[in-house]
Amino acid sequence: MTIEQQRTETVRIDQERLWASLTELGEVGAYFDAETELMGVRRLALSDEDIAGRHLVVPWFEKAGLEVSFDRIGNVRARRPGLDNTLAPVVIGSHIDSVATAGRFDGCLGVLGGLEVIRTLNDHQVETLRPIELAIWTEEEGCRFGTDMLGSAVAAGRISEVDARALTDAQGISVGSELDRHGLVGDRPVPVAPPAHYVECHIEQGPILEAGGYEIGVVTGVQAILWHRLTIRGRAAHAGTTPDALRHSAVLAASLVTVKLDEMVKSGDYGALLANVGRFDTSPNLVNIVASEAIITVDFRNPDEEAIQRASADLLAYCWEVEERCGVTISSEITAHTPPVEFYDEVMDEVEQVANRFGLSNRRIMSGAGHDAGEMAAICPTGMVFVPGRYDGISHNPREYSTPKACADGINVLLQCAVTFANQE
Ligand code: HGY
Ligand code: MN
Ligand code: MN
User: Fold this and answer.
1) Where are the beta strands (DSSP E) in 239-373?
2) CB atoms < 10 A from the CB of 38, how many?
3) Ligand 1 pocket: which of 139, 140, 301 to mutate (most atoms within 8 A of CB)
4) What is the pLDDT of residue 347?
């Protein structure tokens, strides 16, 4: 190890400063959540709340001396120059858009943890060969515009800028019009030039690390994700006078599909399949009218690509049976599909070695959730650092929690990984 690297080895982030940043960002888009009776966070992508979050964080980037720029899909990139700025940067980042019932950590730990890395390197006058860049990716959650990791997928070239701009939310508002409204269409082209490495720190959002007492998760990859949006059309009719045989209930059809998904998961025929019906909109949604329309979303997850595709095909086959039985029509659109992702050995090994050097218990773990790192893995050596959650790692719920020390442990590991890769020729 060079003297510089030995010096950096002893550098640790400022845990209180990181926690204060997480707390302050957690106030943006805060709402009182009736289910948990806690303050939750709601910063749907490209909403005014999401932009307010950016208006808080981007000045923090600038105050840390970073050169901030935006790409065509509104992804934020903030650059800390290196000794040789002709070299590709190491990028660390995540997202600050949230689901509608979020906590303070999902995505924000990776973005504000990256900022804490920069602040700490500045405090200790650590220079790196390569530039280090922070990234805030647009619409990671996918729950407003219907496909997840949108900004990083456009950055990595999986989704075109044109297709991304055309996506619309449930009110028919498009990504493009929101980007234009907020002035977020930047000069940097997409797809982006491949970074040298990409590393992301994120809460696990599940129970495994907490149950095993592990302090760090060395993430091996991301399971497959496949989303359907089903539009079911029946016929509105009087609930009192219409005989059962003459009914065409969209709600009955949607409910049969929902039960079928539960049977598919529990059957064991599709390996470790998970299925969720998150959106269940019906119309006219009134007590004495047989429903004429239902729109439901199906979120499949599976570590096995063949099994998730088979589940998707079997869902569609079952929809045809339901059409027959209920006298409805069902149309399906696949709105998201990412096969399983494997992270890079060199990044996993670095995360593991740093955790071991720091005496942090750790294990390898596949991610159940999708992440921007899953997109970046297509264009550069990529990996993730997980930190454990509490309360069975609950997430997408205001109960989401991790401790100040757990967050600091993860970001200390992130810092060392970023410096190691930024000092590679
Ligand atoms: O859907 C996911 O796994 C992520 O939270 N966007
Ligand atoms: Mn996330
Ligand atoms: Mn999420």
Assistant:
1) 274-283, 289-290, 293-302, 329-338, 341-342, 362-367
2) 14
3) 140
4) 98
In this structure, whether the domain defined by 225-338 belongs to CATH 2.40.50.140 is answered with: no
Question: How big is the chain by its Cα radius of gyration, in Å?
Answer: 23
Rounded Cα gap, residues 25 and 155, in angstroms: 25
In the structure, what pLDDT confidence band is assigned to residue 4 with cuts at 50, 70 and 90? low
Enumerate residues 6+ apart whose C-beta is below 8 A from 99. Answer: 42, 44, 106, 141, 143, 396
140 lines ligand 1 (CB under 6 A): yes
Token pair 């091996």 in the structure block, residue? 220
The pLDDT score that the predictor gives to residue 2 is: 63
Distance from C-alpha of 339 to C-alpha of 307, rounded to nearest angstrom? 11
Is the beta carbon of 141 within 6 A of some atom in ligand 1?
Answer: yes
| Ranges of H-type helices in 124-248 | 150-156, 161-166, 175-181, 208-212
Amino acid at 159: I
With b for 16 or more beta-carbon neighbours within 10 A and e for fewer, the 403-412 pattern comes to: eeebbbbbbb
Domain segments of the chain: what residues?
A: 3-223+340-422, 225-338
Q: In this structure, which residue's CA is closest to atom 1 in ligand 1?
A: 370
Q: Supply the pTM of this predicted model.
A: 0.97
CATH of domain 3-223+340-422: 3.40.630.10
Q: Residue 420 phi/psi, 5° resolution?
A: -55, -50
The CA-atom distances, in angstroms, between 50 and each of 45, 57, 147, 153, 186 are 6, 11, 17, 19, 17
By CB neighbour count within 10 A (0-12 exposed, 13-18 middle, 19+ buried), where does 100 fall? middle
According to DSSP, residue 118 is labeled H
